[in-house]
């Protein structure tokens, strides 16, 4: 048995490489012509993995990172692209990050808040996407402000606007896009966390994990990640060192 066959057997015991695609994070993945043709850096990395292992990936669609994590418990995928988080790490192994993005806040244009640290006050209500990396982070770190959760990150922005909450927490790029498309909102400078995005496998798949760590280093050194980000309309500067 070749190394690629051994890795594939460990990574995808069913013989089908099932890859989770979280469309809730448009920085990493965007919808293509069909569910079998996602675009973005995560999709391109998945295809590169499959090519090296000699298989065709089967993409599994999700609209929120929390649902990807829940899917791991139901054995729905073999490979995913998720933000590193200690709670998730109880059942998932993460490679080093391939992308680092900022978690920040969107507020109304007339809001008195100008810095992210000002939001942690009694009475402040912040919309978040349930189970997203920034939801997990803020749940651990906010002392006084309260979180109001929506099913997805996109829904959290709508919840913020509909209920006139104090802020919406999220990834900077989607927040900027929302503010550009909807008059009366702005995104704060600075960030409350730097979200490290990594490749992820079920924790028990050690051989596959070790192979992915080496694979990702190759992708970084070849500038594959920066090129994939640029090709999908994202800034190459968010590529992890």
**What is the gyration radius calculated from CA atoms?**
18 Å
Mean pLDDT over the residues: 95
N-C termini distance = 34 Å
- Beta content comes to 15-25%
> What structural class do the secondary elements suggest?
alpha/beta
Shape: elongated
If helices are DSSP runs of H or I spanning 4 or more residues, what is the number of helices? 8
Helix content: 25-40%
List segments where confidence is low: pLDDT < 50 over at least 5 consecutive residues.
none
Largest sheet: 7 strands, mixed
Number of strands: 9
H-E order: HEHEHEEEHEHEHEEHH
Question: How would you describe this structure to a colleague?
Answer:
The protein has 241 residues and is α/β, with parallel strands linked by helices. The chain is built from eight helices and nine strands. Helix content is 35%, strand content 24%. The longest helix has 16 residues, at 206-221. The protein is elongated and about 65 Å long.
Could you give the topology of this structure?
Layout: H1 3-11, E1 18-22, H2 41-53, E2 58-62, H3 65-73, E3 80-83, E4 92-108, E5 125-129, H4 133-141, E6 146-150, H5 153-163, E7 167-171, H6 172-181, E8 185-187, E9 193-202, H7 206-221, H8 224-231
Helix pairs in contact: 1-7
